[in-house]
Amino acid sequence: MTLPKLRLAVLGVGGSGKTTITTHSAYWLAKTGFSTVWFDFDVFPVLSYFEDIRHAIREGLGIANAKLLQKLSPKNLNLTETKARNIRKNLCDRVLKEKLTKEKTKALVNETLAKHNPKDEEKITARQTAKTVKSIESIAVDEMNSEQLQAIREAMQAKLAQIDAQLT
Q1: What dihedral do alpha carbons 121, 127, 129, 130 form, nearest 10°?
Q2: Domain encompassing residue 36
Q3: pTM here?
Q4: Residue 19: partners with Cβ closer than 8 Å, 6 or more residues away
Q5: Which of 6, 24, 52, 106 is most buried (most C-beta within 10 Å)?
Q6: Are residues 60 and 111 in the same domain?
C-alpha cells in the first residue's frame, strides 16, 4: 500500500509548543509508515530573550539587532536586573528610533559593555599592548637602509620620551 504524500506546517506564537507538537507528530507519522522529514525553522528562540527585547521586537526591532542587544544582561553589565533593563530599553528605543544598522547596533552594544565592564576594556588594552610589543620586536632592522633606521629611531625616541613622562 502506498501512503499519500503529506505536508504538515505548524504555526503559532513563541512558546505555544510548536516544536513539541511537530516532534511528536513526525515521530508518530514515521512509526505508522510515512516517510518523514522534519524541519524546525524556529531560528529565533524568542522565549530566551528578555521581555523588554521581546517587546521591542513587536515594535519592529529586527532579529539581528535583538540578538546583539540580548548581550546586555545584568551579568555582562555588572548591574542589577532593573538597571540592566533600563539600559536595554533605552538602547532598544534608540535603535528603533534611529533605525540603526546591525553594525551600528553592535558598536553601541560593545561601547555600553565596555563602559559598564572595565575588566573587558583592560583585557582589550592588554591584548593591544602585547600586539604592539610583538610588532615592534618583529621589525627586520637588518633589511633596512640607514634612512629607514634613522626614521624608526627618531619615532621610537619620541615615543620613549612620552612613555618616560607618563611613568614619572
Answers
A1: 160
A2: 1-42
A3: 0.48
A4: 40, 42
A5: 52
A6: yes
126 domain residue, yes or no: no
d(CA 64, CA 168): 47
Q: What's the CA gap between 130 and 134, in Å, rounded?
A: 6
Residue 80, SS3 per DSSP: coil
Same domain, 77 and 50: yes
pLDDT (tens digit, 9 = 90+) per residue, 33-58? 888 888 777 655 667 789 999 899 88
Q: CA torsion sign, 120 to 79 to 76 to 71?
A: negative
Q: Model confidence over 74-95: pLDDT tens digits?
A: 998 988 999 999 999 999 999 9
Indicate the residue type of 78: N
Domains held by the chain: number: 3
Burial class (CB in 10 A: 0-12, 13-18, 19+), 110: middle
With beta carbons less than 8 A apart as the criterion, state whether 65 and 95 touch: yes
